[in-house]
Design a protein that fits this description.
Chain lengths: 144, 467
């Protein structure tokens, strides 16, 4: 398999979720930090994230979900990555992953649920873009 | 008269079914014990002698064509290998089941030493190797091909994985002296199932190699090729009956329940998409014609397993039938049945127990076959999510197998398919009509479907008896 391009990132909002503002902000921040962003926009199925990562040899897939259906939309994504030859791809997820009332009560439970599903990192909806960039640099071993 | 003879070399009995294509009727049927250990033809001859004795109007010269299937000598035993359990392994398993195989082993990810030893020791007829989408992961399937190359046993390997490494895998296995057949990937893209080429390949391998390896080829001079495993014929008949042909309407989506001594098989035809637009459908797409085999739910060999597995359901079913004996007696009888598998009930209590065992087997088997609905919290409401097929709308449920014929309460057995209010997540049929495959014509119609689909369908429809 071709060497991954650490500076290429696939980004989009998953499932039937039409929210764009969050990923738009992240896109600008990533580009400013020197990343190449494959921007898939909103309402993106799992397969489209994976195909974009295969085509671009991306170093990471960033999944946004803001309408509370994160667990349904993200389930099985790591397994599909494995079949597609992306066993080790970095997989981040962030946003309002479940209903807000649930998040307030038990963020740790939500976090662990997504880690269980095979995500590399899970971010709450108050994450700042620089936190994401820091995590990417660390996980991809990019010298800042 | 245009008499076609449809033969099933079964695991226990060799069955013959004579049909007249001119009148589209069943002329007669007979069976005799399968004789695979000596000469497969002896059992067939015995069955034919019985048929001709009971129907003196027929003899050898009246048969214009013979078509045969087989599930003798252990049936078609397959091992399925994939990468991710829920994806390529599941796709491989579905391809195998749809081809009428019995799955005797399933392995996901890299085969380790222990798995290889298991495979070596497991008597199987065919190994199916899948893994990776086309252009996707190739390391694991290559590793597994290398591992299989080390096997000492002589077994055919069907490769149905990542296209990119197909020829390399063929080479690895051929260099090791293995019989290899290569076909299309069972999962060319994530979540895209492609089981038909693999099913066709399995059928060819069965016809060309496995029949011979099992010593069933002695029948070929008389019957021609044994064209498919019997369960594949049944699944074909199910699909024909649901879809119909240009000249004869089908019955629409349906469910067939096949109860045997060692297994309970469920066939469903229909996509089973959600009935309600708000329901989110998840998981691997389901095949239109789906077969599942429950190797732990036969009503003789596994009668005691049914007792252990579903004691509460069995108890409820027995008390609904006013069964006179207590549960410890039932435990004892089910143990006896596993030893004396030829057991036939001889009084009403015994018939009632058989009915309860069969109904319990059906309940569990259909629950495993049917889709499930669960609710997941969304931003405001609970969101319904469906996995598998929704069978709630199915109108036609058909029972086949001995217990529907010698048994006294076929409708009570089929009631095991029904949706249960206390278990609303299991999407079982809500308000179906019940039928019995009266003349055991299901497999025969499946064999005939390849050459005379409309006639096969009409014969099949005529032999369904509504309860």
């Amino acid at each position: 398999m071709a060497e991954i391009d650490k500076k290429t990132i696939v980004l989009g909002t998953i499932g039937s979720d039409a929210h764009m503002i969050g990923i738009w902000v992240i896109r600008k921040a990533l580009e400013a930090a020197g990343f190449k962003v494959i921007f898939l926009g909103a309402v993106v199925p799992q397969e489209e994230f994976i195909n974009a990562a295969i085509e671009s040899n991306a170093g990471a897939i960033l999944v946004s979900s803001l309408y509370g259906m994160g667990p349904i939309d993200c389930e099985g994504m790591r397994q599909k990555c494995i079949e597609s030859g992306l066993s080790d791809v970095l997989l981040y997820v962030g946003g309002c992953l479940v209903a807000p009332a649930e998040v307030a009560k038990k963020w740790q439970v939500v976090h662990d649920q997504f880690i269980q599903m095979g995500f590399s990192r899970v971010f709450p909806n108050d994450t700042l873009p620089e936190d994401i960039i820091k995590a990417l640099n660390q996980d991809l071993r990019i010298a800042e | 008269m245009d008499c076609h003879l449809l033969i099933d070399f079964g695991s226990t009995y060799t069955k013959v079914l004579a049909v007249d294509l001119e009148t589209e009727t069943v002329l007669g049927r007979a069976q005799s014990v399968t004789t695979v250990d000596s000469n497969i033809m002896i059992g067939l001859r015995n069955a034919l002698d019985i048929l001709f004795q009971e129907h003196p109007e027929m003899d050898e010269s009246s048969i214009s064509r013979k078509i045969a299937s087989s599930s003798a000598a252990g049936g078609l035993r397959m091992i399925a290998i994939g990468l991710v359990r829920e994806l390529t392994l599941e796709a491989a398993r579905r391809a195998a089941l749809g081809a009428g195989a019995k799955i005797v082993g399933s392995y996901a990810h890299e085969l380790d030493e222990e798995s290889l030893q298991e495979i070596e020791a497991n008597p199987c007829d065919l190994i199916m190797l899948s893994g990776g989408t086309d252009g996707g992961n190739k390391e694991v399937i290559l590793h597994n091909a290398q591992a299989l190359a080390e096997l000492k046993k002589d077994v055919t390997i069907l490769v149905a994985g990542n296209r990119v490494v197909r020829s390399k895998i063929k080479q690895i296995l051929q260099n090791a002296g293995k019989q290899v057949v290569v076909t299309e990937n069972v999962m060319p893209e994530v979540n895209e199932i492609n089981v038909e080429p693999a099913r066709a390949a399995i059928r060819d391998i069965f016809m060309e190699r496995i029949v011979k390896a099992k010593g069933l080829d002695g029948a070929q001079t008389y019957v021609g090729n044994i064209v498919m495993p019997t369960p594949m014929a049944s699944l074909r008949a199910a699909q024909l009956l649901a879809e119909g042909t240009e000249d004869e309407a089908g019955l629409g989506d349906l469910l067939i329940v096949e109860i045997g001594g060692a297994t309970t098989n469920i066939h469903s035809v229909g996509y089973g998409y959600p009935r309600d637009g708000h329901v989110v459908l998840k998981g691997l797409p389901e095949p239109l014609a789906k077969r599942t085999v429950e190797g732990d739910l036969g009503i003789r060999y596994n009668a005691h397993t049914i007792y252990d597995l579903a004691k509460q359901s069995l108890r409820d079913n027995l008390s609904a039938l006013n069964y006179p004996l207590d549960l410890s007696t039932v435990e004892h009888i089910t143990q006896e049945m596993g030893v004396n598998v030829g057991y036939v009930p001889d009084d009403d209590a015994a018939y009632l127990l058989d009915t309860a065992l069969a109904k319990t087997a059906v309940q569990v088997a259909v629950e495993r076959h049917a889709g499930i609905l669960r609710e997941v919290p969304g931003l405001e409401d609970l969101i319904p999510v469906q996995y598998g097929k929704d069978l709630t709308h199915i109108k036609v449920v058909i029972g086949t197998g001995g217990v529907f014929h010698y048994g006294r309460y076929p409708a009570r057995i089929l009631a095991g398919v029904l949706y249960e209010a206390h278990n609303p997540s299991s999407l079982k049929p809500k308000n179906p009509d019940f039928y019995v495959d009266q003349g055991y014509v299901l497999y025969g119609a499946g064999l005939l479907a390849g050459i005379h689909p409309t006639k096969a369908l009409r014969i099949l429809k005529k032999n369904l008896h509504q309860l």
